[in-house]
Amino acid sequence: MSSLQVWQSLLAISLMALIAYGSRVLGLLIMATVPLSPLVRRFVDAMSSSVLIAVITPMIVHGDGGARLAAVAAGAVAIGLRSPLVSIAVGITCAASWRWWFS
User: Fold this and answer.
1) Pairwise CA distance, residues 6 & 1, whole Å
2) Who is most buried in 18, 63, 73, 96, counting CB within 10 A?
3) C-alpha angle 16/17/18, rounded to 5°?
4) Do 4 and 31 sit in the same domain of this protein?
5) Domain tally, the chain
6) What would the pLDDT profile of 12-63 be if each residue is shown by its tens digit?
7) Is 41 found in the same domain as 3?
8) Does 71 fall in a domain?
9) How many CB atoms lie within 10 A of CB 21?
10) What residues make up the domain containing 16?
């Protein structure tokens, strides 16, 4: 990966993190005067998840077997244990293990 690609990736990740954070904060600040129905609250809560999915999906589609294994394992752990920290750790471990053994 070239230096330009690294900087472009870091810029894209930073912008998406800023957008995810901004959408939550600004959405709640704007809606502070309006009573939030359960439907509106679920919509606001789902916005940051949709940005995360938009970041991860291309990595899974265009990534190697380690990326796919990490996504499947982390997803299974997240569904089974409902622990984001454990699912992240499992995903990182799976990707690192795949790349250690098959690269």
Assistant:
1) 7
2) 73
3) 90
4) yes
5) 2
6) 999 999 998 988 888 778 877 777 788 877 887 888 788 888 888 998 999 9
7) yes
8) yes
9) 12
10) 1-47
